[in-house]
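**Protein record**
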Amino acid sequence: MVIEDFLNYLRYERNRSELTVRNYEKSLKDFESYFKNRENHLSWESVDSDLIRDWMESMMDKGDMASTVNNSLSAVRSFFRFALSRGLVCKDPAHTVKGPKKQKPLPMYLREADMDRLIDGEQMWGDGYDALRARTIIIIFYETGIRLAELVGLDDNDVDFVQHHLKVTGKRNKQRIIPFGDELERVLKEYIRLRDEQSLKIESALLLNDKGCRISRYQVEKIVVAYLSKVTTLKKRSPHVLRHTFATAMLNNGAGLESVRKLLGHESVATTEIYTHTTFEQLKRVYGKAHPRA
């Protein structure tokens, strides 16, 4: 009866969707079944925080993901807030219970061999301005790790061929300097030469569409998906995957975490740490070569 009162409150006072109401109902009835099976005399009034934690642990043991457990905990919390406010229970044991931390999905990235095959494979690209622009985009992403919005926002004067660096405007208009090597210099110069020969340019943007205007995010995404599809079967084939690939390659080849953080424009090194898992394969190779009994 108490559960039904709460569900009606969600429906008629909070105007929650029927799907939300059904999900809350399932979570609450699952929990009620759990504590009744533990001890038949238990009720919503006598439930304590430890029992809620035990229930959550049982869900994790069955293989439920952290997000599922947190959703169920949210339903129980909401129920106890409602029941306490209506005088249906004397205490709220759920408000002190913390849910499990959500596991961040590991970043998808391409192997260095796949990137080499793409960038160095002449048969991958074809001829003409569109092909050269596409190759330039891929190499900028791979050699600098910049974000999609940062790439689209590049102007000609953001490229310094003397100092070999890009001036990138990131989130909240924060600027950072990213060095680049000889390969990207050659590609950029060739792209700019061909672009200007064809009199395409009508604004200051580095990367232009066929009408001479700044290339759009959608166009860049479409180009990246098309070319990454030639060398990988990853489900995600986005510009962000190339950013992950850059970070992974840097760490696997000896770059320090703090250096990679600065190049990526992360506020905290904790954000950059999601890439450290990728160095484990490199670590295993080093171990295999170096340890006498490996």
